[in-house]
Amino acid sequence: MDHTFLYDGDCAFCTKSAQFLEKHVRTTAKVVPWQWADLDALGVTQAEAEEAVLWIESNFQEAGPDAIAVLLRRAQWYWRPIGWTLSFGFVSKLAWPVYRLVSHNRHKLPGGTAACSLPQAERDRLAGG
After folding, report:
1. What does the alpha-carbon distance between residue 116 and residue 118 come to, in Å, rounded to a whole number?
2. Which residues have CB under 8 Å from 114's CB, separation 6+?
3. Which burial class, exposed, middle or buried, applies to 71 when counting CB atoms under 10 A from its CB (0-12, 13-18, 19+)?
């Protein structure tokens, strides 16, 4: 299985962040919105995909800032120190509250939209799906 990095494709802030990754952080991962991914084939539930960004390998999965750390460790040499630093226990523990703060307020950030603050079921209902 290829490496896959899942993000929320309905969120403009997340999409802009993923576009930055694709443009500036060369990685072996497919960077794909979870809404377009075959979650069953990846072994991921929709709830897991909605909760945080995910790094998925055949026998390995990380979420949130830990997923970002893996992605950076697997990128060009100059991103790797950031990824390793983010992986340190105390840094990772500090990164999670920051990640949650950003993810819960992403609709207020540059590029964010109201859809960023809604769970998928609510987005589907509003879209008539």
Report:
1. 6
2. 107
3. buried
Query: Could you give the number of structural domains in the chain?
Result: 1
Tokens of 119: 């769970």
The two structure tokens encoding residue 45: 């539930």
Q: What is the 3-state secondary structure (H, E, C) of 95-124?
A: HHHHHHHHHHCHHHCCCCCHHHHCCHHHHH
pLDDT tens-digit readout, 47-82:
999 999 999 998 899 999 999 999 999 999 999 999
Model confidence pTM above 0.70: yes
Strands 30-33, 60-63: parallel, antiparallel or unpaired by DSSP?
Answer: unpaired
Q: Range of 30's domain?
A: 4-127
Extended strands (E) in 11-67: 30-33, 54-57, 60-63
CA–CA dist 106, 1 (Å, integer): 31
Cα distance between the two ends of the chain: 31
